[in-house]
Design goal:
The protein is 0% helix and 38% strand. By secondary structure, the chain is an all-beta fold. The structure holds zinc ion (ZN). Zinc ion is lined by residues 43, 45-46, 48, 80, 82-83, 85.
Length: 133
């Protein structure tokens, strides 16, 4: 059984690795990745709520003209599960978060979504009952 698990492969003595053709990949190629929604959000087109950590197949690309302290910034394109509208966001390493770009708005109360104020309605604080005499 163990012979099928060998990690090294046989290379014949006349093997020349320079004969292997190099594959040409575009510099900024988009990849398909599987990701989870980074926060609760609502589609701007159809109003569908998308829960945090819902899984999507996304297109991922580098943002060429931006970086943060030399770190690459990635942009992701996902589609709304109801209306197939495109939703775009990118990584924000400065705030260790994601930045909304198009197609949705965040419904969670996170400051770095740059809305200035939280988008969700806040429940008013509960009044404490005074103890009855
Ligand atoms: Zn939608």
């Amino acid at each position: 059984m163990s012979e099928r698990k060998v990690l090294n492969k046989y290379y014949p003595p006349d093997f020349d690795p320079s004969n292997i053709p190099r594959c040409k990949v575009a510099r900024n190629k988009t990849f398909c990745v599987r990701l989870m929604a980074p926060c609760n959000m609502k589609c701007n087109t159809c109003g569908e709520y998308i829960a945090k950590a819902k899984k999507f197949n996304a297109r991922k690309e580098d943002v060429d003209d931006e970086n943060y302290l030399g770190l690459r910034i990635y942009r992701f394109y996902i589609r709304c599960p109801m209306c197939m509208a495109e939703i775009v966001f990118k990584t924000d390493p400065e705030h260790t978060d994601y930045l909304i770009e198009a197609g949705r708005r965040a419904t969670s109360r996170r400051r770095s979504w740059r809305s200035g104020r939280p988008s969700g309605r806040r429940r008013p604080p509960r009044r404490r009952r005074s103890p009855t005499p």
